[in-house]
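User: Second chain of the day. Same drill as before.
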Amino acid sequence: MHTRIRLRRLCAAAAVVVTATAAAIAGATPANANGAPYVGNQYDYGGVRTPIDGDISTVDSIADSITGSTDATLADVANHRASLPYGDITPGTGPALSLYPGPSGIPASDQYSVTVDDQPSFVYESLAAKHDTNREADTSWTTFSFTGSVTVRVTALAGSGLTGCLVRPYSAAISTSFAGDTCTFTMSQPRNVSVEFQPNIHNPIQHPMLVFANPAENDVPPATGDPNVLYFGPGVHQIGSGNVLHSNETIYLAGGAWVQGAFIANGPVDNVTIKGRGVLDGSFMDTGNQDSNKNQPGMIDIADQSSQNLLIEGITLVNAPRFNVRALAQYTTIENVKTMSWWYSTDGMVAGNKALVENNFVKSNDDSIKLFWGDEVVRGNTVWQLENGAPFMISWNLENDPSNFHVYDDDVIHAEHYQIEKSAVFRALHAGAGTPNRYLFENIRVENATWRLFYLTVENNKWYDPALGYGELDQLIFRNIHAYTNYTHPNVVQGIDGTHKVRDVNFVNVFTDNRCIGDAEDFTIDPATTNAIRIVKSADGSCWT
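Assistant: Same format as last time:
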């Protein structure tokens, strides 16, 4: 039996309660750290520990190389997107406010009502489906588009004993006022946010309320006259699950459209746009059984990796019995898409090689954002993780060697992990023969999560055949990560043997458990299966607080 480094600081309590006051929110956006010189430690194969005091030029060089590659990817994706007939994702110029009618026959939420600039905005409700593990009862949401600024009022219809409210993510820096079970705030830019009423602001929140404040639409296709446009206007549309996507096609879901359907590409497709402000609903496919749902189709499924030039923008997906968006085309943009789903195996979104995943809201009970195919930028997203899966999944049995991921300026507002041992905000359970490498995570905020921050391993699992062999994890950087809460489980970094390691993993200015970490006190690091694990913080004490 090999010896492990078992370095863990036991939390005095399961969590630190985040004080939900206007002052706390106003001061919650961290400033960037001052950088080098750094102090900390490097942990190498065999258990050797070397103090670090100075710069970390090797790490900086890797980070610069990753961003150079992904910046080029952004330009390539934008050039391809510009060739789409309705592919402009630039915010429109008006009108100042667009509210969308509630579809006939779709019941309004019984938990909340909303006005925007004193006009009612329809509030939807999705009921929890996996009753054996879901700790929430439902999720309500409203959606609208605007320019300029708007005043939003959210009223808790069943309010009792409420004392105040807040808006997550903290980084939105939205101040609120509270009176008569109503939370009032002003929004001056598009943002997907959660409105939470004190004292019910910690996991689990029984009745979440989300506000999807979209930018004004741009490049909207015509309702008639273009044979390559499939247009769904306001109202309920029952189209089923076998809808085949075609090259050079635009699918548009207008605000107020409720489309009970799913789309699939039977082979490669090019130049496909799916956009709008409407809702794609998968509840009609839900069997009510976890195992049976694994045989159901995804909501948007483009699996052929030779596909090219895909845009999914603005729509909301709810009640998927399996995954929401699998878009494995090259040159893919997933922009301002909202997903809410309850079952295990309902991943949020995964994009193909050369992709931009931006400004989305993901509320899933499996992996929210999968980072599997490389040359990808993931930024400005907000994640509410349910009890299963991970907000950021780095690998799950990958057979290829994906590289160059830049994941930054994202918010995890909740992670409801409470029973699955290997859960974490940043997770790799890599059992495949590939070697995922060159991941740069930076400027990421985690608000309401208490289980574990990092779980990075090469390990076998029941879904993988060991005869296929193992790869490694290589060159991961976690820089300027701010977690507002304490964790009850140690971070784990572990390979499977001395040949298949987790190596060159860097934790730079990670703030968690009320401190900036510079050593492995909160980590379990296996010296027999890892190498070059660096944990450092800025020597000036700035961290990212």
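The two ends are 40 Å apart (CA to CA).

User: Great, on to the next one.
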